[in-house]
Amino acid sequence: MTHASTMMSSRSALPLLKDGSLAWKPHLAEGAAALTASLDAAGPESLKRLDEAVAAEAMRRHDRFLDGVAAYRHHRYRRALPPVPAVWSQGSTRLLDYRLPEGQGGAPVLVIPSLINRAYILDLTAKRSLMRYMAAKGLAPFLVDWDAPGEAERRFTLTDYIAGRLEAALERVAELAGRKPAVIGYCMGGLLALALAQRRPDLVASLVLLATPFDFVAGREANAVMMRALAAPMGALIDAAGSVPVDMLQSMFASLDPGLAGRKFQAFARLPARSARARDFVAMEDWANDGVDLVGPVARECLFGWYGNNEPALGEWRIAGRPVLPEEVAAPSLLMIPHRDRIVPPMSALPLAERLPNAKLTMLDGGHVGMLTGPRAKTEVYGPLVRWLKRTDQLRKS
């Protein structure tokens, strides 16, 4: 319905185009003026013919979009990777051990994903798996799998997740490996990793932040104003429901680029069903549509504290009463930031590189998810990341 209304809304704008009252974005103004002049030159019936053409094109695109959705729903791909053993658990949280037998003595790495999406974005397929790549290169990687929150997590705050679950998982990795691990955080997991590194310098050897937000207002001032305005009504809904349902979260992400679903499913409709690109698309969409609810207290901290009040960048975000300050993290740090990230724009992530005392910054060409799963992920992210981890581990030991 969203796609259909988007397509057909083009027709409702045509009268505004004819009378000159349609507001255009600056980079479209020249083309709009040429279109208006062309319509005037074509005579009184031109708007009617344009309306018919726009309606036909909108219907064609919508049909192609529906073809893509149907092809996705009926595709035969199903994720079927070998199970990974869990070496620790509390409530719904598990610690998955990706170590290979020959890599038991490798440098340990604890990987922290977002609380919103499933952890297997870091182990999507056999060929697109940061976890399995690190293991194959001789590291000892462990992945935090949050799973969906259960009854025990319903009233959790970020302090419960970081000072409770993550610190316990970190201690378990250090115990199994016999030394302190590197910590990697992806997206929201990067902020959790940052707070963990500040709290436990005795157990964090180095820190890697992948597409991690920090300044939630930079470039999106209007969003912060809107979030503050919604704090009371949305807060009441969160309190009544006890969580933010995954469908609401998906709608928020979709609003960042309303045309994305139409473009990607139309493109998918043209792919051969048995192609590797089609299988990769289905694997990614299955993950994207497999999100989980965000418990109420955490939702309040993130939506209103982070996005509304920009607490991390202002030094006002606290874990167990202590402000989370990058300046206090002395461990060697690597930040990998994609140029084309719509979810975490570079302007949001870059301030961390300036405030971490011992940071290296790497800018990437990809997007938020593509940095981990795209065709260049191994050469642009996996390989450089593993080399940095190994080099940092050697320097620490020497």
List the total number of helices.
Answer: 16
Biggest sheet: strands, sense, closure?
8 strands, mixed
Strand content: 5-15%
What is the level 1 CATH name of the largest domain?
A: Alpha Beta
- What class do helices, strands and sheet pairing give? alpha/beta
Features:
alpha/beta, Rossmann fold, 2 domains, globular
What does this structure look like?
The protein has 16 helices and twelve strands. It has two domains: 2-73, no CATH class; 86-218 and 293-397, 3-Layer(aba) Sandwich (Rossmann fold). 36% of the residues are buried. It has an eight-stranded mixed sheet, with helices on both faces. It has a two-stranded antiparallel ribbon with strand order 7-8. Strands 9-10 form a two-stranded antiparallel sheet. The mean pLDDT is 92. The chain is of the alpha/beta class and 398 residues long. The longest helix is centred in the first third of the chain and has 28 residues, at 46-73. The protein has helices spanning 2-12, 14-19, 29-42, 46-73, 130-136, 158-177, 188-199, 221-241, 246-255, 260-269, 276-288, 296-308, 311-314, 346-355, 370-373, 377-397; strands at 86-90, 93-97, 108-112, 140-145, 182-186, 206-210, 243-244, 294-295, 318-319, 322-323, 333-338, 359-364.
Outline:
The chain has 398 residues and is α/β, with parallel strands linked by helices.
Question: How are the secondary structure elements laid out?
Answer:
Blueprint: H1 2-12, H2 14-19, H3 29-42, H4 46-73, E1 86-90, E2 93-97, E3 108-112, H5 130-136, E4 140-145, H6 158-177, E5 182-186, H7 188-199, E6 206-210, H8 221-241, E7 243-244, H9 246-255, H10 260-269, H11 276-288, E8 294-295, H12 296-308, H13 311-314, E9 318-319, E10 322-323, E11 333-338, H14 346-355, E12 359-364, H15 370-373, H16 377-397
Parallel strand pairs: 3-4, 3-5, 5-6, 6-11, 11-12
Antiparallel strand pairs: 1-2, 2-4, 7-8, 9-10
